[in-house]
Design brief:
This protein is mainly α and 87 residues long. It has one helix spanning 11-34, and strands at 61-62, 66-67. The protein has a domain at 11-67. The structure holds iron/sulfur cluster (SF4). Iron/sulfur cluster is lined by residues 44, 55, 58, 60-61, 67, 69-70, 74, 78-80, 82-83.
Length: 87
C-alpha cells in the first residue's frame, strides 16, 4: 500500500463484520427466549388440571397463546405447576 492510499475495506472484512452483526442478533434473540421456563420444568400440559384450573384464568397468561414465564405456545386450556389465579 502506498502512503497516499486510504485503507480499503476488503470484501472479506465486510462479510466478517456482517456475520458478526447477525451473530450478535441471534445471541440476543436466544437470550430473550431463555428468559422463560421450559414447559417440561413446570409440568405444562395441554389440558386443565384436575381442579379445572387453566391458563386463560392464570395471571401469567398472555392472549392469545403465550405466557409471561413459560416458553413456547400456550394453550388457553392448558395448565402448569406455576399457575397463579388472576385476582
Ligand atoms: S398455568 Fe399460568 S404460568 Fe402456567 S403456562 Fe399457563 S399461563 Fe403460564
Amino acid at each position: 500500500m502506498h502512503d497516499n492510499e486510504a485503507p480499503k475495506a476488503s470484501r472479506r472484512n465486510i462479510l466478517r463484520a456482517g456475520a458478526a452483526i447477525v451473530a450478535a442478533g441471534v445471541v440476543v434473540k436466544h437470550a430473550a427466549a431463555e428468559d422463560k421456563i421450559e414447559k417440561s420444568l413446570v409440568g405444562y400440559q395441554d389440558k386443565p388440571n384436575a381442579n379445572g384450573q387453566h391458563c386463560s384464568v392464570c395471571a401469567n397468561f398472555q392472549a392469545p397463546a403465550s405466557c409471561a414465564i413459560v416458553a413456547g405456545t400456550i394453550d388457553p386450556n392448558g395448565w402448569c405447576g406455576a399457575f397463579a389465579p388472576k385476582e
